Amino acid sequence: MTGYRDRDWPNVWWLALGYFCFYAPYSALVKVLADGRWLGSYELVSGFELLPAIVIGSLVSVPVVLGVSGLWRKATTRRLCGFEAPVPRPDTLRSGFFAAIIVGTTTINYTFEGLSILLALLLMRGGVLILCPCVDYATGRRVEWYSWAAVGLSLLAVSIALYGLPRYAFPVLAALNLSAYLLAYLGRFRIMARSAKTDDVRATRRYFVEEHLCTMPILLGLIAVGALILPGPTGVALRRGFTSFLATDAALPAFGVGVLYELLFVFGTLIYLDRGAYTYCVPVNRGMSLLAGLSAAVFLWLQYGYPPPNIFSLFALFLVGLALLVLLWGPKQKNSRLRSRTGPVELGTVTFVCAGNTKRSPLAAALCRDAIAKHLGITREDLPTLGVRIVSAGLKVDEYAPMPPLARKALAALGVTETCHNARPLDASLIRVSEAVFCMTESQRQEIVRLVPEASHKVWRLDPANDLPEPSAETLFAYMQCARRIREVVDHVCEFRLLASMQVRQEGVR
Contact at 8 Å (CB) between 203 and 424? Predict the structure, then answer.
């Protein structure tokens, strides 16, 4: 119930392997269908004509994936007509719209006549690699040296592979398609960073499920509207995709492409939801897709007589492999260096509690993380690596509610960046695993002790002498007053209680 990512979230490298296993056959099958090579038909099929069947295949697969995994229970629900139904929240609905654009443009990009699978893949991957440090800086995430190195190696690989392509056939429609793809990724990454890349695995799973539930219905609705209103060849192709194409021999493999995309979409999204910076997880995702694309190109060469990958593509593959090795080795070196410098730090979990978990307790948690990190001479992002977890919760919570913008501004004025916060209710399991629980008021402390009497020895009022009230008004000045007061108390607690506890643990280990 504590929702910690390290215990409950799958390893990013296993996710990358799954992504590779589904991306290679997906990209190869799309290209074979579009070029008319399926069953030797030799009839070109427009990407817009393929799209309806692919989306239907993905849409049918979504409830199977979420049902088998049991993840559908993690979505926000509302009571509709006497039944509890999953209803996406506004942020995940917007993210689902952007994801729908990504799904559609990705598939279409592999189907333009004369546009090779490698060129389409490289342009998409290179564009997203350029986006990721921009999003990290915009959301206040630290970018490590190994992430920079992997981004640089990946971009160099893309450039070399592009240079080695025999010709560039890039229609105007393909350029517009690529632009829509990159803009959709930018919008999706910003929402994901704000709502889901957090230590709270409940919030991350909720985002994943809700975005997943609405992505394919939105895309199917968009292409259905396009089929009705678009003039010219594009509209004709979409209308054929919903009608005559479904009676052809290529319809069934097109549904199969949709199933493959649903599965790779699952693994790809889970990689992006790793709590680390985009500059770390995006190269993992993009690197594996480049390896998958090259594998698909080799298969198409051997099986269908497509041009083979050239020496430039093979050298690019080597650089991508090197980038992945850097990402695998870098975090291990960093963690080893941190532990050798700080010693066996094992503070454990410290929980701050208020009523709604949107103002006082998240302010206190953010300020506490900052104080302990400065004491240890590390960044706030490194604390979980050392077993230090500073979390917050509430007694009367609108679950997943964000921190108010004024609270974020007050933290920023104090030099602290809070990248993501979702309100969560306090439960008995979180109290039991916590080394210390700090409340804003005496009445909150008493309520927690009544909930878990055996935890009374580790539940305190943050300021022993006085309650800490909420901001007196919805103004930046009021939030600044509240944040400064909380910082004074948190600094005192960190200095005389939490850091002393860490020192005792270290001396006990020695």
Answer: yes
331: CB partners within 8 A, 6+ apart: 144, 146, 280
> What's the angle, vertex CA 431, arms to CA 428 and CA 435, rounded to 5?
160
* Residues 338-391: tens digit of each pLDDT: 767 655 556 678 999 999 999 999 999 999 999 888 887 888 878 877 778 899
Tell me 121's DSSP state.
H
List, in sequence order, the alpha helices (H) in 305-404. 311-342, 360-376
Confidence of residue 114 (pLDDT cuts 50, 70, 90): low
Is residue 246 exposed (0-12), middle (13-18) or buried (19+ Cβ within 10 Å)? middle
| Nearest partner of 407 among 396, 397, 418, judged by Cα | 418
Which of 70-84, 172-186, 434-448 has the largest mean confidence? 434-448
Tokens of 426: 């306090």
Given a cut of 70, whether residue 412 has pLDDT beyond it is yes
CB atoms within 10 A of CB 297: 23
Q: Tokens at residue 471, please?
A: 């901001």
Higher pLDDT, 378 or 506: 378
Structure-block tokens of residue 204: 């991350």
Q: What are phi and psi of 70, to 5 degrees?
A: 80, 5
* Percent of residues in the chain assigned helix, strand, coil, to nearest 5: 70, 5, 25
The encoded tokens of residue 489 equal 């108390």
User: Would the CA dihedral through 501, 431, 424, 11 be positive or negative?
Assistant: positive
Sign of the alpha-carbon torsion through 52, 57, 63, 69: negative
pTM: 0.82
